[in-house]
UniProtKB/TrEMBL annotation:
Rieske domain: residues covered: 2-96
Gene3D superfamilies: Rieske [2Fe-2S] iron-sulphur domain
Domain of life: Bacteria
Protein name as annotated: Bifunctional 3-phenylpropionate/cinnamic acid dioxygenase ferredoxin subunit
CDD domains assigned: Rieske_RO_ferredoxin
Single GO MF descriptor: oxidoreductase activity, acting on paired donors, with incorporation or reduction of molecular oxygen
UniProt KW keywords: 2Fe-2S, Dioxygenase, Iron, Iron-sulfur, Metal-binding, Oxidoreductase
Taxonomic lineage from the root: Bacteria, Bacillati, Actinomycetota, Actinomycetes, Pseudonocardiales
Length: 105
């Protein structure tokens, strides 16, 4: 488990980037926390710098969009999903379990 940040430091609609084996973006989307690989699968861009609408994040480079719950792309130009990670909130701290990675196709 990697400590991402305090709950108070990640307001709704915002994201934070953490470093693990790869960069990971942690989002507060509609009061739920999600973690995905930070790099867009279409081209190297930080999803933490993207635009969040509900549970979808739009890449800041070419507007590819991903569902934070599944990692699946919802529109072109991205065709491959981003990896997702379990998130745990304990005592007001957000943790990402980088040991349990959902494999992407």
């Amino acid at each position: 488990m990697i400590r991402a940040c305090d709950v108070a430091d990640l307001p709704e609609g915002e994201a934070v980037r953490i470093l693990a084996h790869v960069p990971i973006a942690v989002f507060n989307a509609e009061g739920a926390y999600y973690a995905v690989d930070d790099t867009c699968t279409h081209q190297d861009a930080s999803l933490a710098d993207g635009w969040l609408e509900g549970c979808l994040v739009e890449c800041p480079l070419h507007a590819a969009s991903f569902d934070l719950r599944t990692g699946e792309p919802t529109c072109l130009p991205a065709k491959r999903p981003v990896r997702t990670y379990p998130v745990l909130v304990t005592d007001g701290v957000i943790y990402v379990d980088t040991n349990v990675r959902e494999e992407v196709a």
